[in-house]
Amino acid sequence: MTNNLTDLIGNTPLVLSKSLNTNPEVRLYFKLEGQNPGGSVKDRAAYNMIASGLERGDFTKESRLIEATSGNTGIALAMIAGLYGLNIELVMPENATKERVQTMRAYGAKVTLTPSEGGIEGARDYAEARVKKEGYLMVNQFGNHDNWKAHFKTTGPEIWRDTRGEITHFVSSMGTTGTIMGTSAFLKEKKSSVQIVGVQPTDNSSIPGIRKWPKEYLPKIFDPSRVDRIMEVSEKEAEEMTRRLAREEGIFAGMSSGGATTAALRLARELDEGVVVSIICDRGDRYLSSDLFDD
């Protein structure tokens, strides 16, 4: 029992792959971030950015907050902002699944949809213009150090604890890069030999939650020295693996998790031995209106 919903953020389970990983010398664990109350890994960053910002006085309950999002961060921010009684507007491309839009609105956030051809970059430009011209304050997940610090404080320590320090490789999709930056910083402090593997889409692939950013949009929190290796995954590979996760491992997740799992399995096949942890970013129910799970 808990008095605060935010106490339920984090301490998500690690589950051993029983089917997809076929290398008996490698243990592959999935960290199930869909178990967070808002349904994704982004609950951690949203809570830390909001709580820390309020504590420092960066904004107040009278502030008008705005943020561009592709989905999960927006849902998490809507939930946390509602808990704190904050006014927030979330901006996303109009081709986002309706489940994500409806969930943000259910939590009480204002949602603005921008033209799909502009992608998340267009949504970011729209939000930046509102900040400059209309006095909004940006949460700024792409440049807010409270994003990656959430994972330094929680995700990294949980993985270290639950693998008893035996982890050899950490695999994470790269979007805002907060998860991989913070987890890497912690794990490297504990054991410098831990290999950090980031996952990006191949050229011309579109995988929600994973990006290969143009230089001008590269998240300011990203430090390439914290990533030992980048693996690229195609849209088709991510889709197929997302379906296999559900059917073969019983893990219902979105495409970014399928992308990370594709990379983690590729890695596992290369290793003579090891303990690999891969992030399962969210739940699959927010993608049901897409064709992701169509036969």
UniProtKB/TrEMBL annotation:
Functional pathway: Amino-acid biosynthesis; L-cysteine biosynthesis; L-cysteine from L-serine: step 2/2
Domain Tryptophan synthase beta chain-like PALP: 6-282
Top EC class for this record: transferase
InterPro entries recorded: Cys_synth (IPR005856), Cys_Synth/Cystath_Beta-Synth (IPR050214), CysM (IPR005858), P-phosphate_BS (IPR001216), TrpB-like_PALP (IPR001926), TrpB-like_PALP_sf (IPR036052)
EC number(s) stated in the UniProt entry for this protein: 2.5.1.47
Entry keywords, A to Z: Amino-acid biosynthesis, Cysteine biosynthesis, Pyridoxal phosphate, Transferase
Cofactor(s) listed in the protein's UniProt record: pyridoxal 5'-phosphate
Superkingdom of this protein's organism: Bacteria
Reaction(s) catalysed by this chain's protein: O-acetyl-L-serine + hydrogen sulfide = L-cysteine + acetate
Family named by the database record: Belongs to the cysteine synthase/cystathionine beta-synthase family.
UniProt protein name: Cysteine synthase
Taxonomic lineage of the native organism: Bacteria, Pseudomonadati, Bacteroidota, Flavobacteriia, Flavobacteriales
Gene it is expressed from: cysM
